[in-house]
Amino acid sequence: MGYNVPSQMVVGQTYAVSATYQNMGNQVWGSSIGHKLGYGGSSVPVSPWGISRVELPGNVSIGSNVTFNFNVTAPSTPGQYSFAWRMMQEGKEWFGGFGAPSIQVLPSLIKGNIDSATYGSISGWACSTYLNRSVDVHMYLGGSAGSGTFAGATAATLPSESGIASACSASGSNYRFSFPIDENFIVQNGGKSIYIHGISPVGAANDTISRSGEVVVPASVVKGRIDGIQNNAIVGWACSTALRRSIDVHLYAGGPAGSGAAVASAGANLPSEPGIASACSASGSNYRFSIPITEDLIRNHGGKPFYIHGISPIGGPSNLIDGSGTLSIPAMQRNAAFVSQNMPAQLSTGRSVSGSVRFTNTGNVTWRQGQGYRTVLVGDTRGWSPGEVGLVSDVPPGGSVDFNFSLRAPLGAGGYNLRWRMRDSVGDFGNESSNQVVQVVAPPPVEHGVGLAARSYVYDANQQLCKVIEPESGSTVMAYDAAGNLSWSASGLDLPSTTSCDLDAAAASGRQVVRTYDTRNRLKTLRFPDKNGNQDWSYTPDGLPGQVTTLNDSGGSSFVNVYSYNKRRMMTSESSGQTGWYNWSIGYGYDANGALANQTYPTGLVISYAPNALGQPTAVRDQAGSNYATGIGYYPNGAARQFTYGNGVSHSLVLNGRQMPQQVRDNNVASFEYQYDANGNVSAIVDQQRGTGYNRYMGYDGLDRLMEAGSERFGGDNWNRYTYDVLDNILTAKLPGIRENNYWYDTKNRLTNVQNNAGATTVGLSYDPQGNLKNKNAQAYTFDYGNRLREVTGKEYYAYDAYGRRTLAGRSTTLTTQVYTHTGQLFYTDASGKAATEYVYLNGSLLATRSAGAIKFQHTDALGSPIAVTDTAGQVVERTDYQPYGSPIGKTVDGIGYTGHAMDGATGLTYMQQRYYDQDLGRFLSVDPVAADSVLAANFNRYWYANNNPYRFTDPDGRNSVITTAKDGSISIDIPINFVGPGAAQANIDSVKGDISARWSRAYNVKGKSVQVSVQVVPVTKDTPKKVQNTITLTTGPTSDKASQGASFVNSDGKTGEWNVTSRGMPSGEAAHEGGHLMRADDHYSATVDASGNRVSTPEAGYEKNLMGELGNPPDDRNISEILSSKKNIYIGGE
Questions:
Q1: How many domains does the chain have?
Q2: Is there a single domain that holds both residue 254 and residue 387?
């Protein structure tokens, strides 16, 4: 009857169809007997419609119609298809006619488009044409399926516009898709091309949709803007687009990265407005930054344009943000306003008085300590000191500072106009203080004191010095052997004649000290009347000391020093000990350059120094790996610039333009700034660690003697004040509220009484015949004939070696043995009932102590006094402060203390090796063993300490503190040498010094008389006259003198040269030969080159056995005559 079927179908799709038939036969159709609707018949191919049989819906009577309703699936291949169906009885027959309409089967293809890729999603649409249903889509990155990376799948089910349905040749309304993406997706895939495949629902090709490969995942890029300068900071915002996270920004001055200077960085992580998040296409709320405009930024880059780079967190370009280069860093403003001042209207010439001046910082940078900020005197400043005062603390903009100072007046009386102004490293700035007129008047006259001291010298018939008469120690008589060596002397005699030697009386006095010599005129024995200090000397074949035996306890015990040397004549060991009791040994090791590399202690502890090419230690550590100092650096003059203690505390030294200490700092432990007057005296010590209460201020008279020293730490009214007589004796030492000391002296220039202001004696003193202290306030002191303190009765007794170094200190409960090195450093102590102590040094200064394995680090001031002790954790466990002349404040020191010397807690004295010092009185207990300087009057006072200038000078071994070239009755020649160069290790220096002294020190015939000459090398100090300062470079190989084949030499200036410490001539006296040139002795040989090219020296006639003509021989009278006749040497005492 007919079909109800579409004329077009889409491949693979299912359609509902119907076919109506009429039973025109003679049999009822029934399913039970196999009647059905079937596709085709025997002459028609197999059904392409997914079904070939349709069951009857029920029996169909004859003549009745039946409609078959069923679903068919379009073929998978497009084309024209016949829709041919017939009735059939299954298994028997086909019957009836075909109904065979032609149906067009259409193809369904993937179609679509990628519309956009934003920071939030990738979107578009996709369909399979002619189909109303949605399709799935798959996303790939970097390539289509098969080459790209699968990145996700979704369905194109979102509502779509009618135009998309038209494009799909369909009527559906849900063809859109959207892939949401987050910042992680963007970070990982930014910039990659996007490919989207539609997934065919009909089994067709899963084609990519339009714009695949063209659209890319958006990348996160840096963007931002500089808003300006607000509240002294550069502000703005920056982000990396699509990222919620914050980024960093870097600030450049003068140009962007690559041309500008990187000066600061910050995080753009401050709260930001929603609009910034929108601009960043992100959901974060912290994109703002604020970069403080620091003072360093202003100082170094003020006025320069600045640029800000946002730093990409994903490795992308760190772009400049908007506004870069349009603004500049504020320029530095240096300004100061004077506030007030406290200045005296009058003071005496050369005297000091406290003063202050206040300034306010009206600029835009902080005045910082250590950066050159100070106030300076302007106006009529002649002779005033200090001329400038440094900051004691930082002063921020708007802050004020009081500069406190001790102002010393000039020596010229009159009116002076004084003003102060601020100054930094650039120059003066700000306004001046108001003008202050100060009247300087002459000081009052000295009220009391001896006022006169006469020293007389008597000579025998041979013009040899045979007697010295001094008020403090009486007469010292001397006699000589046939070779001109001093054979005996006797001191403490009452023989006042200035015309007679009084040899017989002296010999009968019982005070003779007798000396004998070997055939080379070297000291062999030394004998004292009480046997204390008796010595026996022996030497190596080349003249170095081999063993010295010294008696103590009135001859009842002996102390022995034994020395060993290597082939280069450097000391390798020294042992010291008391016979029958103990023997301690010290070992020395050297590197290939001859520099001291390690020292071995009596306990077996080995300290190494890792010397550099100049022989300077670069690290101090022991064999167990414990560090005492590391990272040691030096100034060109050899001073240690910095190092780090083993506990991590960093030490630094800053020198001023005069090469004096300006700042000594141990981080978080101690920090001192030193200020000086025009003469180089210390005028202030600013304690930058503990504050103004520990500052010290000093003033001096016209002779550079300390007149006053002020500090809150001193107590009382804070000011120690001193006066002196013309002989440099202290007349008064007063600290009101603490002490009022008035000193009185006898006619022998010896301190006998100290009285208070009421006239009551607080200290009484008496002396033995040789000028040594005998009694102080009923406390007895016993000195031997060699002027060594042997006993402080009831408190302590002592023993010594041949060099006067203490070997034993005995108390009623404790015996302490002490070991000193040959350079005079206390190395090791062993006290009964206590753990032994080892002392570790760096460049001569105490660095640490070690007891029972526990290390304590010592922190010293510029004088070498330990002022703080730290433990291994760097914590301060002890502090010590000192009064001006060395008394510890508020404590007793028993061990290394003031200026690095041993302080004895039991006696209150300081042992300075050659003498004992009473720090409470500011004087030595015995006379100076170094003769008085009769030209400059230096050291004319036999008891004074450090030239009465204790903040500038120290007394290294109890002898004079000013080094000069001296010649008194017997002749003492000092050669000041500054040793430098790769061979300037201490052992090499000691060897050179020893060779010069040993070969030149002997008796000579000078102008017809026998004269004992003593020669020694001394260091160059700030007090050494310029005329006699020498600098010698020690090398460890040939020198620069190629013409002489690298031989040692002294230049024509007679003050500089190079000496090869490894030269084959060194053991034969090469150092002594060159040292002769420094004393102005001439060469007496000629040098040629033989046929083999070797240098050959030939002595002048008559100089074959003379040091200056042929090595290996001693100098003689002719050489010493050349030295003494030279006008380039300085002479003190005699013609």
A1: 6
A2: no
Cα torsion angle, 253, 256, 259, 262, sign: positive
| Per-residue tokens: 434 | 């108001």
141 with 176, same domain: the answer is yes
212 touches 194 (CB < 8 A): yes
Q: Is the dihedral of CA 364, 370, 371, 372 positive or negative?
A: positive
- DSSP assignment of 274-317 equals HHHHHHTTS--S--EEEEE--HHHHHHHTT-BEEEEEE-TTS--
858 contacts 632 by C-beta, under 8 angstroms: no
Q: Which helix (H) or strand (E) holds 997?
A: helix 986-1000
**483 and 395 share a domain?**
no
Q: Say whether both 370 and 489 belong to one domain.
A: no
Count CB atoms within 10 A of the CB of residue 68: 18
DSSP 1059: E
- Tell me phi and psi for residue 522, to 5 degrees: -100, 145
Query: Which amino acid, one-letter code, is at 792?
Result: V
606 touches 622 (CB < 8 A): yes
**Token pair belonging to 841:** 């040094």
Structure tokens at 1029: 């300062």
Shared domain check, 400 and 280: no
| Secondary structure (3-state) at 1074 | helix
**What is the spatial distance between Cα 172 and Cα 805, in angstroms, rounded to a whole number?**
114
Range(s) of the domain holding residue 180: 110-199
Residues 366 and 389 in one domain: yes
pTM tops 0.70, yes or no? no
Domain assignment of residue 716, yes or no: no
Q: What is the pLDDT of residues 242-292, one digit of tens each?
A: 999 999 999 999 999 999 999 999 999 999 999 999 999 998 999 999 999
Q: 642: which 2 tokens?
A: 């910095």
What was the pLDDT predicted at 765?
A: 95
Backbone angles phi, psi at 690, to 5 degrees: -105, -10
Distance in angstroms (rounded) separating the CA atoms of residues 532 and 557: 9
CA distance 1017 to 914: 18
Is residue 1127 exposed (0-12), middle (13-18) or buried (19+ Cβ within 10 Å)? exposed
What residue type is 379 in one-letter code? Answer: G
Do the beta carbons of residue 263 and residue 251 sit within 8 Å?
yes
407 and 279 inside one domain: no
Domain boundary among 91, 106, 121: 106
Beta bridge partners of 410: none
Taking only the tens place, the pLDDT of each residue in 893-905 is: 999 999 888 999 9
**Residue listed under structure tokens 């010293």:** 860
For residues 170 and 131, state if they share a domain: yes
Contact by Cβ (8 Å): 686, 695: yes
